[in-house]
Amino acid sequence: MRKNWWYALLLAPFLGLLYPPLYDRADPALGGLPFFYWYQLAWVIVTSLLLGIVYLATRERTRE
Fold it and tell me: Do the beta carbons of residue 50 and residue 13 sit within 8 Å?
C-alpha cells in the first residue's frame, strides 16, 4: 500500500500541462525560445526524472 503514493508524483506533469491558456504566451523567452515551447520541453525532462524516481521507488527488489 505504501508504494501507491509514489504514483501521485505522476500527476504533476498532467496538471502542469492540463490547461494551455496558463502557459500560452511568448514571454519570458529562454535562449530565443518562447515560453510556450520551453515550458513544455521542461516538462518532458521533469516527467522523465519523475518516471525514473517512481520506477526505482516501486520496483520489486529481488535477492540474488
Answer: yes
- CA 17 to chain CA centroid, Å, is 9
Rounded to the nearest 5°, which phi and psi values hold at 26? -90, -30
Q: How many CB atoms lie within 10 A of CB 39?
A: 19
| Per-residue pLDDT tens digits for 37-46 | 999 999 999 9
- Rounded CA-CA distance 33/39 in Å is 9
- Among 45, 41, 43, which residue's Cα sits nearest to residue 12? 43
Is the pTM higher than 0.90? The answer reads: no
pLDDT of residue 60: 77
